[in-house]
Write a structure and sequence with these properties.
Blueprint (H helix, E strand, L loop, with lengths): L3 H16 L2 H37 L4 H29 L14
Helix pairs in contact: 1-2, 2-3
Length: 105
């Protein structure tokens, strides 16, 4: 999935949102945030497939390559977990800004 065109679309809608007032603006922001959550969910699904294949490949790797692969798996796994947490917060109606920062876990 190419994120460029949805990103441009979202940026355009954010500019539109800046021109709106009150409840209508909040509805637009909620809608845009929902689109971002949908994109994030698709990325999580894609990353899960990559993680599965990478974990299988660790067994066949050796030496420095195995270490780099394991490190990449750990980083991707961390990002998937953080992304899933933000998406869940959106669907539960909580604000991600009311939570502790994602830095460090």
């Amino acid at each position: 999935m190419v994120a460029g065109s949805p990103t441009r679309s979202i940026a355009s809608k954010l500019r539109f949102r800046a021109q709106q007032h009150g409840d209508e603006a909040q509805a637009v922001v909620r809608w845009i945030t929902g689109e971002l959550a949908d994109i994030a969910e698709a990325a999580i699904r894609d990353a899960a497939v990559v993680l599965c294949n990478a974990k299988r490949a660790v067994g066949a790797a050796s030496g420095p390559r195995k270490g780099r692969l394991q490190q990449a798996i750990n980083h991707l796994d961390t990002m998937v977990g953080r992304t899933a947490r933000v998406v869940a917060q959106f669907y539960l109606g909580s604000s991600i800004w009311d939570r502790r920062p994602l830095v460090g876990g």
